[in-house]
Specification:
Distance between the termini: 29 Å
Number of helices: 13
Structural class: alpha/beta
Bound molecules: S-adenosyl-L-homocysteine, iron/sulfur cluster
CATH class of the largest domain: Alpha Beta
Number of domains: 3
CATH superfamily of the largest domain: tm_1862 like domain
Strand content: 15-25%
Number of strands: 19
Radius of gyration: 22 Å
Helix content: 25-40%
Oligomer: single chain
CATH architecture of the largest domain: Alpha-Beta Horseshoe
Length: 431
């Protein structure tokens, strides 16, 4: 979401003549787009701000700004009390950036942190810097008010972009040669524009170019409609991968979290998804150490994980956030206990992921080649339809190729493949 928002800011500033520089020492403006979801995300930004501020000693005209959720959360504190930055701009105020920058070059401090009920940046083309896989925000904000979560306070009320503008943007991305689009929203499946729900949007977007992969994130279990499950099942180029955060396996904790489902309702949903979409891959988010979570309730989360057998899981230590309901519940689970629970969950998941991935050895998977592998110049990284990372030898492959690969090896995080047939499609031909 933040990468997509940064591209949006890039689009707004690029149209006013600003360009990116890879070197901090060349920059006239440094904008940090920030996350406030957990305290450690904020601490990292504070560390980074310290380093960037050091540059101001030799270059007093450098303009430093903080964008995004942390700007929304801390507001004046950054400018007035801590004097760390020149600009503070919340997620719904990016249109004001050019004017605020003009002011900042004249020595003014600028704050814009109003949340909007309507801003979707519908008409702004993000400045995308990579050409294979595109992020596309289709809705902003969140109305769910999970009791642990700061998002409704930092990103505001839920609102959807217009159906037509999204379909048009996907068409433009296809024309530019993008091979994959991920529709984004905090609660992407509660998308609605007039008579169009998220299932209708997915179908329309997938119909733009049948050779383009369509993904989405993040979906809330409550809004996982039958129509959406059917759309995923029946549309070849909608990827068979769903990130479906459960957060906890204990009904008492789920109720305290205001997640609106019980563990057994969630399990039924998973069953329905698996019956309708054979081979679907599932991942989740889990919070460990929510206020008052007992060892027994932690075990229930592990039981649920064993039952679902997720392909992947992101596990977080609970971080108390001001203004949320859970903030008032106190932060009762000791940090060491949270950390021990996270470790258990991560180990359990590593075992499950390894088993599931190793089952794929010998099978052939269609891999979209996305870019260089981090570890070796001789290899590319790509992903399967089910969102698993695959490392393949470069050979004569090019970024953007969709290539069938036989899986030779696998660990918890990565598959290693060999192309069985080079991508024969020439430009312009259907894949
Ligand atoms: N809208 C998405 C999640 C956005 S935040 C959804 O509801 O699924 C991403 C993840 O961060 C959440 O799923 C949750 O697991 C985690 N998270 C959010 N607030 C948190 C907090 N206060 N402490 C720890 N983890 C948190
Ligand atoms: Fe936060 Fe819950 Fe909204 Fe996700 S659904 S963004 S966890 S309030």
């Amino acid at each position: 979401m933040n990468v997509a928002d940064s591209e949006l800011v890039g689009g707004i500033l690029n149209s006013r003549g600003y360009t990116f520089t890879g070197e901090l020492s060349d920059a006239d403006v440094v904008l940090l787009n920030t996350c406030a979801i957990r305290d450690n995300a904020e601490q990292r930004i504070r560390g980074r701000l310290g380093l960037i501020n050091a540059q101001k000693r030799t270059r007093p005209h450098l303009v430093i700004g903080v964008l995004g959720c942390m700007a929304e959360r801390l507001r004046e504190q950054f400018i007035e009390e801590e004097r760390l930055v020149d600009l503070i701009v919340g997620p719904d105020e990016y249109r004001k950036l050019p004017a605020l920058l003009d002011g900042a070059f004249g020595g003014e401090k600028g704050i814009a942190v109003r949340l909007s009920r309507v801003e979707t940046y519908d008409d702004i083309e993000p400045l995308r810097t990579e050409g294979i896989s595109a992020w596309l925000s289709v809705m902003r904000g969140c109305d769910k008010f999970c009791t642990f979560c700061v998002v409704p306070f930092t990103r505001g009320r839920e609102r959807s972009r217009s159906f037509d503008s999204i379909v048009d943007e996907v068409r433009m991305l296809a024309d530019k040669g993008f091979r994959e689009v991920t529709l984004l929203g905090q609660n992407v499946n509660s998308y609605r524009d007039g008579g169009h729900d998220f299932a209708a949007l997915m179908k329309a977007v997938a119909a733009v170019d049948r050779t383009m992969r369509i993904r989405f994130t993040t979906s809330h279990p409550q809004d996982m409609s039958d129509a959406l499950i059917d759309a995923i099942a029946s549309t070849d180029n909608i990827c068979k991968y769903i990130h479906l955060p459960v957060q906890s396996g204990s009904d008492r904790i789920l109720a305290l979290m205001n997640r609106t489902y019980t563990a057994s309702q969630y399990l039924h949903l998973v069953e329905k998804i698996r019956n309708t979409i054979p081979g679907v891959s599932l991942s989740t988010d889990i919070i460990s150490g929510f206020p008052t979570e007992t060892a027994e309730e932690h075990r229930k989360t592990m039981d649920l994980m064993r039952e679902v057998r997720y392909d992947g899981a992101y596990t977080f230590m609970y971080s108390a956030r001001e203004r949320t309901k859970a903030w008032e519940m106190g932060d009762s689970v000791a940090e060491e206990e949270k950390s021990a629970r996270v470790t258990e969950i991560v180990e359990l998941q590593r075992g499950i992921s390894t088993e599931l991935n190793q089952r794929l050895i010998g099978t052939v998977e269609a891999v979209l080649v996305e870019g260089p592998s981090k570890k070796s110049d001789a290899e590319f990284m790509g992903r399967t339809d089910t969102n698993k990372t695959v490392i393949v030898p470069k050979g004569d492959l090019r970024e953007g190729d969709l290539v069938d690969c036989r899986i030779e090896r696998a660990n918890a995080a990565t598959l290693f493949g060999e192309p069985v047939r080079a991508d024969k499609h020439t430009e312009g031909e259907a894949a």
